[in-house]
Amino acid sequence: MILKLKKGDIIVIIVAVCLFVFSVSLCFLLKKSGKQVRVYENNKLIFEGSLFSDTEIKLSHNLVAIKNGKVYMKKSDCKNQICVKTGMIENSRECIVCLPNKVIIEVE
Question: Residue 99: how many CA atoms within 13 Å on its side-chain side?
Answer without folding.
Answer: 3
